[in-house]
Amino acid sequence: MFRKLAIAGVAGALIATTAFAGGKKDIVDTAVGAGSFETLVAAVQAAELVDTLKGEGPFTVFAPTDEAFAALPEGTVESLLMPENKDQLIAVLTYHVVPGKVMSTDLSDDMTAATVQGGNVTIDLDNGVMVNDASVVQADIETSNGVIHVIDKVILPES
């Protein structure tokens, strides 16, 4: 269930970069509507995490942009999307999701946060807001079931 929740958070981040007015959508619908998170949405669908991320939450999703996925080594995304690599895909996606709703004002320098995947991410506030080695390029995109923080790099769990 946590894996599915993490994916929903990721999908929500995708939609978060678009101008957002009116009623709040869930993480997945926000991501789909944004148009700049096609890779993330495809990954959430391949990992079968859509229903989880459309659930109650709340979730905090650190959502990589399409450009962030494109910066991975050639063939990485295609490999992750293969059915035989579904467990690895779920691990990567859920590493981008933290249970609960964590707004930027809740962050402190050098804090760690446990992800749905089971590992921890570190927050660094010295030069902007960093999650591990990814920069937050848009923060606090509120959805009906959590919050999305858009990041410029895919963060990978330690093996």
From TrEMBL:
Residues 1-21 form the signal peptide. Keywords: Signal. Residues 24-155 form the FAS1 domain. InterPro entries: Adhesion/Biosynth-related (IPR050904), FAS1_dom_sf (IPR036378), FAS1_domain (IPR000782). GO terms for cellular component: extracellular space. SUPFAM superfamilies: FAS1 domain. This is Nex18 symbiotically induced protein.
